[in-house]
Amino acid sequence: MAAQPSSDPDPLRYSATRPELAPYVPRGARRALDVGCGTGGFAETLRALVPDLELWGVEPVESAADVARGAYDKVITGFFPDDAGELPPASFDAIYLLDVIEHLPDPEPALRAATSLVAPGGVLVASIPNVRHFDVWWPLVRHGTWTYTDTGLLDRTHLRWFTRSSIADLFAATGWTVDTLEGINRTEPVGWKAKGIAALGSRTADMFFIQYAVVARPAEPTPSGPSAERAQG
Protein backbone atom coordinates (compact mmCIF):
# COMPACT_ATOMS: atom_id res chain seq x y z
CA MET A 1 0.00 0.00 0.00
CA ALA A 2 1.31 3.41 -0.91
CA ALA A 3 1.86 5.83 1.93
CA GLN A 4 -0.61 8.65 2.23
CA PRO A 5 0.40 12.19 1.37
CA SER A 6 1.09 14.78 4.02
CA SER A 7 -1.87 16.58 5.52
CA ASP A 8 -2.60 20.16 4.55
CA PRO A 9 -3.94 22.71 7.02
CA ASP A 10 -5.77 24.55 4.22
CA PRO A 11 -6.61 22.16 1.36
CA LEU A 12 -8.97 24.61 -0.34
CA ARG A 13 -6.02 26.80 -1.34
CA TYR A 14 -5.21 24.35 -4.16
CA SER A 15 -7.31 26.10 -6.79
CA ALA A 16 -4.70 27.39 -9.25
CA THR A 17 -5.65 27.22 -12.94
CA ARG A 18 -1.98 26.65 -13.95
CA PRO A 19 -2.07 28.30 -17.42
CA GLU A 20 1.71 27.86 -17.71
CA LEU A 21 1.06 24.14 -18.24
CA ALA A 22 -1.18 24.68 -21.27
CA PRO A 23 1.69 23.92 -23.72
CA TYR A 24 1.93 20.41 -22.23
CA VAL A 25 -1.75 19.50 -22.59
CA PRO A 26 -2.32 16.97 -25.41
CA ARG A 27 -5.00 18.48 -27.64
CA GLY A 28 -6.29 15.13 -28.88
CA ALA A 29 -7.16 13.81 -25.43
CA ARG A 30 -10.69 12.51 -24.89
CA ARG A 31 -10.42 11.48 -21.23
CA ALA A 32 -8.03 12.86 -18.61
CA LEU A 33 -7.28 12.22 -14.95
CA ASP A 34 -6.18 14.96 -12.55
CA VAL A 35 -4.56 13.36 -9.48
CA GLY A 36 -4.70 15.61 -6.44
CA CYS A 37 -7.11 17.92 -8.21
CA GLY A 38 -7.78 20.11 -5.17
CA THR A 39 -10.82 22.30 -5.76
CA GLY A 40 -10.55 21.85 -9.53
CA GLY A 41 -8.94 25.07 -10.72
CA PHE A 42 -6.95 23.28 -13.43
CA ALA A 43 -10.21 22.21 -15.07
CA GLU A 44 -10.63 25.77 -16.34
CA THR A 45 -7.41 25.53 -18.34
CA LEU A 46 -8.20 22.04 -19.62
CA ARG A 47 -11.75 22.88 -20.69
CA ALA A 48 -10.57 25.96 -22.59
CA LEU A 49 -8.10 23.85 -24.57
CA VAL A 50 -10.15 20.67 -25.00
CA PRO A 51 -13.86 21.57 -24.57
CA ASP A 52 -15.17 18.00 -25.03
CA LEU A 53 -12.72 16.46 -22.56
CA GLU A 54 -14.09 13.89 -20.12
CA LEU A 55 -12.35 14.92 -16.91
CA TRP A 56 -11.83 12.78 -13.81
CA GLY A 57 -10.21 13.80 -10.55
CA VAL A 58 -8.84 12.16 -7.42
CA GLU A 59 -8.65 14.25 -4.26
CA PRO A 60 -8.01 13.05 -0.67
CA VAL A 61 -9.62 16.02 1.10
CA GLU A 62 -13.40 15.70 1.06
CA SER A 63 -14.13 19.43 1.29
CA ALA A 64 -11.92 20.14 -1.74
CA ALA A 65 -13.33 17.17 -3.68
CA ASP A 66 -16.86 18.46 -3.12
CA VAL A 67 -15.93 21.78 -4.73
CA ALA A 68 -14.14 20.06 -7.62
CA ARG A 69 -17.27 18.10 -8.52
CA GLY A 70 -18.69 21.27 -9.98
CA ALA A 71 -15.94 21.31 -12.63
CA TYR A 72 -15.14 17.61 -13.24
CA ASP A 73 -17.23 14.81 -14.70
CA LYS A 74 -16.25 12.50 -11.86
CA VAL A 75 -14.24 13.04 -8.66
CA ILE A 76 -13.10 10.22 -6.40
CA THR A 77 -12.47 11.15 -2.78
CA GLY A 78 -9.41 9.25 -1.64
CA PHE A 79 -5.69 8.71 -1.96
CA PHE A 80 -3.98 7.71 -5.19
CA PRO A 81 -3.42 4.88 -5.91
CA ASP A 82 -4.86 3.21 -2.79
CA ASP A 83 -8.44 4.40 -3.31
CA ALA A 84 -8.43 4.47 -7.10
CA GLY A 85 -10.20 1.19 -7.79
CA GLU A 86 -12.93 2.98 -9.74
CA LEU A 87 -10.46 4.25 -12.33
CA PRO A 88 -10.76 2.27 -15.58
CA PRO A 89 -7.43 0.79 -16.68
CA ALA A 90 -5.72 1.82 -19.91
CA SER A 91 -8.32 4.52 -20.57
CA PHE A 92 -6.82 7.97 -19.85
CA ASP A 93 -5.18 9.89 -22.68
CA ALA A 94 -3.56 12.20 -20.13
CA ILE A 95 -2.84 11.85 -16.43
CA TYR A 96 -1.86 14.97 -14.49
CA LEU A 97 0.16 15.06 -11.28
CA LEU A 98 0.60 18.77 -10.69
CA ASP A 99 2.64 19.53 -7.59
CA VAL A 100 1.64 16.17 -6.12
CA ILE A 101 4.76 14.00 -6.14
CA GLU A 102 6.61 16.10 -3.57
CA HIS A 103 3.80 15.51 -1.05
CA LEU A 104 4.18 11.72 -1.11
CA PRO A 105 6.47 9.86 1.31
CA ASP A 106 7.11 7.40 -1.53
CA PRO A 107 6.05 8.55 -5.02
CA GLU A 108 7.12 5.35 -6.78
CA PRO A 109 3.88 3.38 -6.18
CA ALA A 110 1.82 6.25 -7.58
CA LEU A 111 3.94 6.54 -10.72
CA ARG A 112 3.95 2.77 -11.25
CA ALA A 113 0.17 2.60 -10.83
CA ALA A 114 -0.29 5.37 -13.37
CA THR A 115 1.35 3.29 -16.11
CA SER A 116 -1.62 0.90 -16.07
CA LEU A 117 -4.15 3.70 -16.42
CA VAL A 118 -2.73 5.40 -19.52
CA ALA A 119 -4.49 4.63 -22.80
CA PRO A 120 -2.38 3.60 -25.81
CA GLY A 121 -0.53 6.69 -26.96
CA GLY A 122 -1.36 8.54 -23.74
CA VAL A 123 0.99 10.54 -21.52
CA LEU A 124 1.56 11.60 -17.95
CA VAL A 125 2.09 15.32 -17.29
CA ALA A 126 3.64 16.46 -14.01
CA SER A 127 4.94 19.63 -12.44
CA ILE A 128 7.54 19.25 -9.70
CA PRO A 129 9.24 21.95 -7.60
CA ASN A 130 12.95 22.50 -8.20
CA VAL A 131 14.92 22.43 -4.96
CA ARG A 132 17.99 23.81 -6.77
CA HIS A 133 16.24 27.15 -7.31
CA PHE A 134 18.27 30.09 -6.05
CA ASP A 135 15.64 30.97 -3.42
CA VAL A 136 16.49 27.66 -1.73
CA TRP A 137 20.18 27.50 -2.61
CA TRP A 138 21.18 31.04 -1.61
CA PRO A 139 19.89 31.07 1.99
CA LEU A 140 21.34 27.60 2.50
CA VAL A 141 24.83 28.44 1.22
CA ARG A 142 25.12 32.01 2.46
CA HIS A 143 23.24 31.82 5.76
CA GLY A 144 22.95 28.10 6.52
CA THR A 145 19.16 28.32 6.70
CA TRP A 146 16.42 26.02 5.44
CA THR A 147 13.17 27.67 6.48
CA TYR A 148 9.79 26.08 5.83
CA THR A 149 6.92 28.28 4.68
CA ASP A 150 3.17 27.89 4.17
CA THR A 151 3.53 27.87 0.37
CA GLY A 152 6.27 27.75 -2.23
CA LEU A 153 9.41 25.70 -2.73
CA LEU A 154 9.83 24.92 0.97
CA ASP A 155 6.14 24.39 1.66
CA ARG A 156 5.99 22.73 5.06
CA THR A 157 3.83 19.90 3.66
CA HIS A 158 6.50 18.80 1.15
CA LEU A 159 8.04 15.44 1.98
CA ARG A 160 10.32 15.02 -1.04
CA TRP A 161 12.65 17.39 -2.92
CA PHE A 162 13.85 17.07 -6.49
CA THR A 163 16.37 18.39 -8.99
CA ARG A 164 16.26 17.94 -12.74
CA SER A 165 18.43 14.84 -12.62
CA SER A 166 16.56 13.17 -9.76
CA ILE A 167 13.24 13.75 -11.56
CA ALA A 168 14.61 11.96 -14.62
CA ASP A 169 15.88 9.11 -12.44
CA LEU A 170 12.53 8.73 -10.67
CA PHE A 171 10.54 8.43 -13.88
CA ALA A 172 13.02 6.01 -15.44
CA ALA A 173 12.87 3.80 -12.32
CA THR A 174 9.07 3.62 -12.35
CA GLY A 175 8.42 2.58 -15.93
CA TRP A 176 8.29 5.87 -17.82
CA THR A 177 10.14 7.33 -20.78
CA VAL A 178 10.49 11.10 -20.42
CA ASP A 179 9.81 12.99 -23.64
CA THR A 180 9.92 16.48 -22.12
CA LEU A 181 11.64 17.81 -19.01
CA GLU A 182 11.65 21.60 -19.00
CA GLY A 183 11.93 24.37 -16.44
CA ILE A 184 8.83 26.52 -15.96
CA ASN A 185 7.98 29.64 -13.98
CA ARG A 186 11.35 31.32 -14.44
CA THR A 187 12.39 34.02 -11.97
CA GLU A 188 15.40 36.33 -11.93
CA PRO A 189 17.63 36.92 -8.90
CA VAL A 190 18.61 40.39 -7.78
CA GLY A 191 21.30 41.84 -5.53
CA TRP A 192 23.57 39.40 -3.74
CA LYS A 193 21.67 36.41 -5.12
CA ALA A 194 22.45 37.49 -8.68
CA LYS A 195 26.13 38.05 -7.83
CA GLY A 196 26.38 34.69 -6.11
CA ILE A 197 24.92 32.82 -9.06
CA ALA A 198 27.10 34.73 -11.53
CA ALA A 199 30.15 33.65 -9.55
CA LEU A 200 29.27 29.99 -10.15
CA GLY A 201 29.80 30.31 -13.90
CA SER A 202 27.80 28.64 -16.64
CA ARG A 203 26.24 25.66 -14.83
CA THR A 204 23.41 27.59 -13.23
CA ALA A 205 20.58 27.51 -15.78
CA ASP A 206 18.41 25.25 -13.64
CA MET A 207 18.58 27.63 -10.67
CA PHE A 208 16.13 30.06 -12.28
CA PHE A 209 13.11 27.76 -12.58
CA ILE A 210 10.66 27.26 -9.73
CA GLN A 211 9.36 24.00 -11.19
CA TYR A 212 9.91 21.43 -13.90
CA ALA A 213 7.25 20.28 -16.33
CA VAL A 214 7.43 16.61 -17.26
CA VAL A 215 5.73 14.80 -20.13
CA ALA A 216 6.28 11.04 -20.09
CA ARG A 217 4.89 7.90 -21.67
CA PRO A 218 5.05 4.29 -20.51
CA ALA A 219 8.41 2.76 -21.37
CA GLU A 220 8.54 0.07 -24.01
CA PRO A 221 9.14 -3.41 -22.58
CA THR A 222 12.75 -4.55 -22.78
CA PRO A 223 13.10 -7.45 -25.25
CA SER A 224 14.04 -10.76 -23.65
CA GLY A 225 14.43 -14.38 -24.62
CA PRO A 226 16.23 -16.13 -27.51
CA SER A 227 15.06 -13.71 -30.22
CA ALA A 228 16.40 -10.74 -28.25
CA GLU A 229 19.69 -12.55 -27.66
CA ARG A 230 20.05 -13.18 -31.41
CA ALA A 231 19.30 -9.54 -32.19
CA GLN A 232 21.93 -8.39 -29.69
CA GLY A 233 24.44 -10.93 -30.90
Written account of the structure:
The chain is an alpha/beta fold. The chain contains seven helices and seven strands; from the N terminus they run βαβαββαβααβαβα.
The helix/strand series, from N terminus to C terminus, equals EHEHEEHEHHEHEH
User: Which CATH architecture?
Assistant: 3-Layer(aba) Sandwich
Give the rounded overall mean pLDDT. Answer: 89
Arrangement of strands in the largest sheet: 3-2-1-4-5-7-6
Number of helices: 7
What would the principal axes of the Cα set say about the shape?
globular
Number of strands: 7
- Beta content: 15-25%
Q: How far do the termini sit from each other?
A: 41 Å
**Unreliable stretches covering 5 or more consecutive residues:** 227-233
Total individual domains: 1
Overall helicity: 10-25%
The CATH topology assignment is: Rossmann fold
Oligomer: single chain
Q: Write down the CATH class.
A: Alpha Beta
Q: Measured on Cα atoms, how large is the radius of gyration?
A: 19 Å
Q: What's the story with the biggest beta sheet?
A: 7 strands, mixed
